[in-house]
Design brief:
heterodimer, A: 116 residues, 11 strands, 55% strand, globular, B: 110 residues, mainly beta, six-stranded mixed β-sheet
């Protein structure tokens, strides 16, 4: 149980285009999902916290107009990288928090974004 | 600055030996810690967790030790296997999210 999926697993796009990444909790309801960014050989950096039915909370330094987050249902959150540039190339990972177990987070497999 | 950090960026051990990965944290109010394993190109995988009211917790081949006096956390892996090769992160719960340390790359050699 507690499986989180991400789609796509890998995406290559041209500079200036927008890319949408989906995060789904497959067998549980997640009131909160988190989006992380990870550079090569670096740690995970929290970008934003996504709460179902409300606006996402962004960490300091993360542009909310650049990284649009939508959490439309208890099993789906999306991250859209708008007008992507090469510096947005990274590994994006989502996690989902089980409704009743507040600290426990289950991570998705990640999405590798390459902007040319 | 980071409140969670790791002492060693890389650790090389021989297959069959025990591994110890260390982590220091700075927030004395942190009360929940998790160790994650991340293989290349994949998301973090939960290994073991511990709450601040405990000093030690054991899982299958893994043990987490918590020393609140010096704000230190360690992960011990017994009889390390090639499949244990990965990057290991400790994370502390901040009250609403997880704060990850820098990570230690564990390489298991035959």
């Amino acid at each position: 149980g507690a499986v989180v999926s991400q789609h796509p697993s890998r995406v290559i796009c041209k500079s200036g285009t927008s890319v949408k990444i989906e995060c789904r909790s497959l067998d549980f309801q997640a009131t909160t999902m988190f989006w992380y960014r990870q550079f090569p050989k670096k740690s995970l950096m929290l970008m934003a916290t996504s709460n179902e039915g409300s606006k996402a909370t962004y960490e300091q330094g993360v542009e909310k107009d650049k990284f649009l987050i939508n959490h439309a249902s208890l099993t789906l959150s999306t991250l859209t990288v708008t007008s992507a540039h090469p510096e947005d190339s990274s590994f994006y990972i989502c996690s989902a928090r089980v409704r009743l177990a507040q600290e426990t987070q289950y991570f998705g497999p990640g999405t590798r974004l390459l902007v040319l | 600055g980071e409140s969670v950090g790791l002492h060693l960026p890389t650790l090389s051990v021989q297959e069959g030996d025990n591994s110890i990965i260390n982590c220091a944290y700075s927030n004395s109010a942190s009360d929940y810690f998790i160790w994650y394993k991340q293989e290349s190109g994949k998301g973090p995988q939960f290994i073991i967790d511990i709450r601040s009211n405990m000093d030690k917790r054991q899982g299958q081949r893994v043990t987490v030790l918590l020393n609140k006096t010096v704000k230190h956390l360690s992960l011990q892996i017994a009889a390390t296997q090639p499949g244990d090769s990965a990057v290991y992160f400790c994370a502390e719960y901040t009250g609403y999210a997880l704060n990850f340390g820098k990570g230690t790359s564990l390489l298991v050699t035959p």
